[in-house]
Design goal:
Blueprint: E1 2-6, H1 13-24, E2 28-32, E3 37-40, E4 49-52, E5 61-62, E6 68-71, H2 78-90, E7 94-95, H3 99-106, H4 108-117, E8 125-127, H5 134-139, E9 145-149, E10 158-161, H6 164-176, E11 181-185, E12 193-200, E13 203-211, E14 226-228, H7 234-246, E15 251-259, E16 262-269, H8 275-281, H9 285-296
Parallel strand pairs: 1-2, 1-6, 6-7
Antiparallel strand pairs: 3-4, 4-5, 8-11, 9-10, 9-11, 12-13, 12-15, 13-14, 15-16
Helix pairs in contact: 1-9, 2-3
Length: about 300
Amino acid sequence: MHILILCREPRLYSCQRLKTAAEKRGHSMDILDPNRCFLKLIPNAPHFALYYQRNERDVADLLPKYDAVLPRFGTASTQMGCAVLRHLTAQGAVCLNNEQAFLRARDKWQSLQLLQQASITVPTSGLAGCEFSVKHAVAQASMPVILKTLNGSQGIGVMLAEKPQTAASILETLQQVNVPTLLQDFVKEAENMDIRCFVIGDKVIATMLRQGQHGEFRANFHRGGVAKKITLTMDEQQIAIKATKALGLDVAGVDLIRSKQGLLVLEVNASPGLEMIEKTSGVDIALEMILYLEQKC
């Protein structure tokens, strides 16, 4: 197969691992920045054209047809990345994940709504309209409260407010610059720990327990979190799989926390990183993704 990874940084661990795994299976792979693409619709033509410019001085190259595409782009590239995904799907390429599922996962509030509708337990959360009183929005939350911008990754855009005044100040600032933000209960008993499940298709491929640094409530690898192996029950694994399917994803990183209410799904990531979980679990996740892609094709 001729496979494309859509990613702004080809040197990332995840991209290089996927490229190595694909080539070992006999496939070729390109890693291209969606923001350097030019999409062209041609009247009465049976297909679309896709061009790529490696730098602003180069002439754009007409890209070949791809059999499959793996979206690995960040939140800043969501709009163009999903436009390229739609373009490639129209040309017959198989996607892990498709653009509609990708967009669902990228919007934190929409993804929580879909999880709730699928009878998956999520933390108590709230979202206020731009004309709703910040004071009354904060009054609906329990303190301390987590504030999350609707688009964000690697722990960026996630804040902890200990007091109502602090929460209101953060919300007012973000509202002023038109950044929609949700409020979510802080689960104290989780003790700065969460569980990352890597799901491919109908199977949890790998898991790890993440622990945030002392004084840091976020357990993300990019925020200095550390990880160790963990074994989940079959019921816990099924929750992660169900959450992935609720958003229509083929591949997902599902974040869970254990609370007094039971297991809660915090978030479902459509382009989960491979480095920390591969090194912690010892599982060749990149190879598992390529094998699944072969089956889907």
